[in-house]
Design goal:
Elements: E1 32-33, E2 45-46, H1 93-106, H2 113-120, H3 130-138, H4 149-167, H5 171-182, H6 188-193, H7 216-235, H8 249-268, H9 278-290, H10 295-299, H11 301-314, H12 331-345, H13 347-356, H14 362-370, H15 379-391, H16 396-410, H17 412-416, H18 420-428, H19 435-444
Antiparallel strand pairs: 1-2
Helix pairs in contact: 1-2, 2-15, 4-11, 7-8, 8-11, 9-11, 12-13, 12-14, 12-16, 15-16, 16-19
Length: about 450
């Protein structure tokens, strides 16, 4: 069979660069698993990353348009760690023009979602609360009609408050509430003296040692293990960002918000509950909403993040259902589609990786896909990638496939020169790159 010719533009010197000196090794990445909505839990684990491969300097290119540039304060040779949440930018004329277009679109009575997606896919600016509002629109949390926003937000935020009141309580409080609801006619003194039930009034289902399926205490003890896991994972979410991890009260309140969201999600989705990695998908949403310059929106970041988190996971539902692993919509099929996409656009690289080196794409692509690239790039770059993922009218899944394929092609010369070990290290510790260029290349694969 005739081998498909590699397009000339793939052989450009842009795709490779000299190996720089090795940087300090990044913190180890913990194993993560995948998630789903109220369907059976997916139990596969995301493989841990191997030791760091020296990164390539970001490629530069003159032809693609420059979207909003997000810069951070980390050293340029330090890869795969987040940064403190203060991003600076020097907007170009195009950036300023696009921001003006976004603000104009967001100010309309009824927002044109097609136009909003077109603008957002190029990257969103960090200021003016634009990303916060646009993400809520793209995830379907806000309707296009601005006149409905106030009522919709009030309803959802009230609903989340009820979730917290009903779910984030221990069984002792539930028992007291049950008793008080039957003693409303008693005088205040009697109620005060009867706050705790006597032994004879405690039913079997309300007893702390009850093993009954409907026992609130039995359910409480079953939940303890998951709550402990959530607590551990939240505490190690972006440990080098003061927003998430520091001794400040602000960081601790942010951790508490993440824990609340994940616990409530787990309780409302008993078929899925919580698995490691969910905290990494929640963090960008909460960070963006909490940094909204509108004080009211920032105050309700926890509630808004919960509902957007549910919407985000629903878009990747089939990848995370264990029973669908071997089906045409499961995670293995998704990874196979990535392999086929690479073969279509660069058969030489595909053959070298999968036939010659025998690098199974599951070894690296499983984490890329299930955690939406949050572990492959720094935090600021992840936000830029998510702008594109959320804004594509075809859905985030297809866009994610194109970005993953572009990631492989951007390092093709290093992969073609490598063997199984070096290539696996490279792909499990992806080097820093120009995100604008990465997204530009991914867009070239659009059919």
């Amino acid at each position: 069979m005739k081998k498909k010719k590699v397009p000339d533009w793939l052989n450009s010197s842009l795709w490779s660069s000299p190996h720089p000196p090795p940087p300090p090794p990044p913190p180890p990445f913990f194993s993560s698993a995948t998630v789903d909505l109220p369907i059976e839990q997916h139990t596969s684990a995301v493989s841990s990353a191997s030791p760091s491969q020296p990164p390539s300097p970001p490629a530069t290119v003159d032809d693609p348009p420059e979207p909003q540039r997000i810069q951070d304060s980390r050293p340029k040779n330090h890869t795969h760690t987040s940064t403190d949440a203060t991003f600076s930018s020097s907007p170009s004329a195009d950036d300023i023009s696009r921001q003006a277009e976004l603000l104009a679109e967001l100010s309309k009575k009824v927002i044109d979602m097609r136009e909003l997606r077109r603008l957002a896919c190029q990257g969103l600016p960090d200021g003016a609360g634009i990303r916060s509002t646009v993400w809520k629109l793209l995830l379907g949390y806000l309707p296009p009609d601005r006149g409905l926003w106030s009522a919709e937000l009030a309803k959802k935020r009230s609903q989340y408050k009820h979730f917290k009141d009903d779910i984030l309580v221990n069984p002792s409080e539930i028992t007291r509430r049950m008793y008080n609801s039957t003693s409303s006619d008693a005088d205040d003194a009697k109620v005060e003296s009867r706050t705790l039930l006597s032994r004879s009034e405690i039913t079997h289902g309300e007893h702390p040692l009850s093993l009954g399926e409907t026992s609130v205490w039995n359910q409480f003890f079953q939940d303890t293990e998951i709550i402990d896991q959530i607590d551990r994972d939240v505490k190690r979410t972006h440990p080098d960002m003061h927003f998430f991890c520091s001794e400040s009260q602000f960081a601790k309140s942010n951790q508490e918000a993440l824990k609340n969201i994940l616990i409530i999600f787990a309780k409302l989705n008993p078929g899925v509950r919580y698995v490691q990695g969910m905290n990494e998908l929640l963090a960008p949403l909460y960070y963006v909403f909490k940094n909204d310059p509108d004080e009211e929106n920032a105050a309700f970041a926890e509630a808004d993040s919960f509902f957007c988190f549910v919407e985000l996971l629903s878009g990747f539902r089939d990848n995370f259902v264990k029973q669908l692993d071997d089906s045409v919509v499961g995670i293995r099929s998704t990874i196979t589609r990535l392999s086929q996409l690479l073969k279509e656009h660069d058969e030489e690289l595909w053959r070298h990786l999968e036939i010659t080196c025998k690098v199974n794409p599951q070894f690296y692509a499983f984490r890329w896909i299930t955690l939406l690239l949050t572990q492959e790039f720094n935090f600021a770059d992840s936000l830029h990638i998510w702008d594109t993922l959320l804004s594509d009218p075809e859905g985030p899944q297809e866009t994610l496939m194109r970005i993953c394929c572009a990631m492989l092609i951007l390092v093709r010369k290093r992969l073609l020169a490598g063997d199984f070990t070096s290539n696996l290290k490279l792909l499990q510790n992806y080097p820093s790159t120009n995100i604008s260029h990465l997204l530009y290349v991914a867009n070239k694969f659009r059919v």
